[in-house]
Write a structure and sequence with these properties.
With 482 residues, the chain is mainly alpha-helical. It has 17 helices and 8 strands. The strands form 3 sheets. Strands 3-4-5 form a 3-stranded antiparallel β-sheet, with no helix packed on it. The chain has a 3-stranded antiparallel β-sheet with strand order 6-7-8. Strands 1-2 form a two-stranded antiparallel sheet. Bound molecules: carboxymethyl coenzyme *A (CMC).
Length: 482
């Protein structure tokens, strides 16, 4: 359809189609007709891919001095902030695809490293490319010795996600050339390094918490096997990972590799849009993932199952959720209004892992909790189904991982998604520095008071923690528990 764009007298965006694409009223079919009732002006706004451009609304003003209409969307619940070819989700139907491949098929047929290649470069690698990709990742797993010293500087009980956040950010200082984001080789190397080093950083953080010596990467092992070695190797000369655990871990990592514009990915793109180096952008993703509503949810699921204690307590717990005293962690999703397809796949692998590790008694509570919640109108009406985090924590616990490590286990595979999204963002001509607007609701034009004349208007916080004086000799106080 030949289209021409023009602006009407009042500045509204007009998109007129040819006869074929025009409504009986003479307006283009792929458009939105808007009447601004404040002025009576009519506007026609173009619709492309089911979206309207928020900037088109800026034309709609009550007078010349008016800034123009803005869209108000505090949590970006209905705002597309980019175009992307990486991950497709149909939340209503419970569909997830990476670069067009259904997630179930990738979990059955591929390894995590193949999927990382797919996400980053758009295609599954052929055998030669795969060999080269594995070689590159395997040969960048070591970190500078000073990173090790840096990790040693954390308190013995530092949260491993806090350590990961800091060490990923610190990588930017070891690879200062990564700031050259227009250089294709630098972009590629940053991606390789982050995917390769993330398991090393994660394992160092884990060993630090246990006071155990850090284990260097073993190039003879595959990506998940090497991670297990760095985590669990003790006095044996060679760590031999159980192939069933390696595979379960690999599948979990495929499932967590990307999930389009979630909180952490949006953070990576937003911070990356300032043209900072990719390590710093990915550190922003790690920070976002740390939160209990995002990557921290599986840790909360386990804590919740512990609190419930036995299946007998489930009805009371669910009453608490309905009274809003509790949240059913691992349920609900911003996008999926159906069973999260990742939860379905994980559930299948739970039994395989328990074959190796022995059954976790919390599984019975989880299964019964899921069943009762799915049968309950409260959850059905709100389209609340188990999400990826409902069962993943049980697998991590079976691997004897402390709960603090669960989010770290999410960050390791999500790195390939963050890198893919960051690369796509840097190559997108529409990318500009992210800079949302606000609706200002505060005071204006106040009289300035000299300090001596000011009345106390804001009470500072009081109680434990308001003013913290750290006495290293005193050790942790009870309130400092993790
Ligand atoms: N338990 C109880 N009620 C819930 C839950 C839950 N887990 N999730 C949503 N609701 C209720 C919520 O109270 C609201 O009810 P009402 O309309 O009566 O006020 C309704 O369902 C809609 O919820 P919402 O808060 O508008 O949904 P959202 O899209 O803003 O939140 C969510 C999505 C994931 C933050 C939320 O479902 C949640 O907090 N879930 C628990 C945490 C969790 O499992 N997070 C992991 C997400 S999956 C991993 C990832 O991809 O990051």
């Amino acid at each position: 359809m030949a289209e021409q764009e023009q602006q009407d007298a009042s500045g509204g965006v007009l998109t007129r189609g040819d006869a074929e694409g025009v409504t009986p009223q003479g307006t283009a079919k792929d458009s939105l007709s808007v009447t601004d009732n404040r002025t009576g002006e009519q506007y026609e706004v173009e619709i492309t891919d089911g979206t309207v451009k928020a900037m088109d609304f800026r034309q709609m003003k009550v007078d010349e001095d008016d800034f123009g209409l803005m869209a108000y969307d505090p949590a970006f619940t209905n705002t597309a902030h980019c175009r992307s070819d990486i991950t497709y989700i149909d939340g209503e139907a419970g569909v997830l695809e990476y670069r067009g491949y259904p997630i179930g098929r990738l979990c059955e047929e591929s390894t995590y490293l193949e999927v990382a290649h797919l996400l980053i470069y758009g295609e599954l690698p052929n055998q030669d490319q795969l060999n080269e990709w594995i070689f590159e990742i395997t040969h960048h797993t070591f970190v500078h010795e000073n990173i090790k010293k840096f990790v040693e500087g954390f308190r013995y009980d530092a949260h491993p996600m806090g350590m990961l956040l800091a060490t990923v950010g610190a990588l930017s200082t070891f690879y200062p050339d990564a700031i050259n984001i227009d250089d294709e080789t630098e972009r590629h190397m940053a991606g390789v390094r982050m995917i390769a080093k993330m398991p090393t950083l994660a394992a160092f953080a884990y060993r630090h918490n246990l006071g155990l010596p850090y284990i260097y990467p073993d190039n003879d092992l595959g990506y998940p096997g090497n991670f297990l070695s760095m985590m669990y190797k003790m006095t044996e000369t060679k760590y031999e990972p159980d192939p069933r655990l390696e595979r379960a871990l690999d599948v979990l990592w495929i499932l967590h590799a990307d999930h389009e514009q979630n909180c952490s990915t949006a953070a990576v793109r937003s911070v990356g849009s300032s043209q900072v180096d990719p390590y710093s952008a990915v550190a922003a993703g790690v920070a976002a993932l740390y939160g209990p509503l995002h990557g921290g949810a599986n840790e909360q699921v386990l804590r919740m199952l512990e609190r419930i204690e036995t299946t007998d307590n489930i009805p009371d717990f669910l009453e608490g959720v309905k009274n809003r005293d509790e949240k059913l962690m691992g349920f609900g999703h911003r996008v999926y209004k159906n069973y999260d397809p990742r939860a379905e796949i994980i559930k299948k692998h739970v039994d395989e892992v328990f074959e190796v590790t022995g059954k976790n008694p919390k599984l019975d509570i989880a299964v019964e909790l899921e069943k009762r919640a799915l049968d309950d109108d409260y959850f059905a009406e709100r389209k609340l189904y188990p999400n990826v985090d409902f069962y993943s924590g049980l697998i991590y616990e079976a691997l004897q991982l402390p709960k603090d490590m669960f989010t770290v286990m999410f960050a390791i595979p999500r790195t390939s998604g963050w890198v893919a999204q960051w690369l796509e963002m840097t190559q997108d001509e529409e990318t500009k520095i992210a800079r949302p607007r606000q609706v200002y609701s505060g005071a204006r034009q106040r009289d300035y008071q000299p300090v001596a004349d000011r009345e106390q208007k804001v009470d500072p916080p009081t109680g434990v923690g308001a003013t913290t004086v750290i006495d290293p000799a005193a050790g942790p106080t009870p309130s400092e528990g993790r």
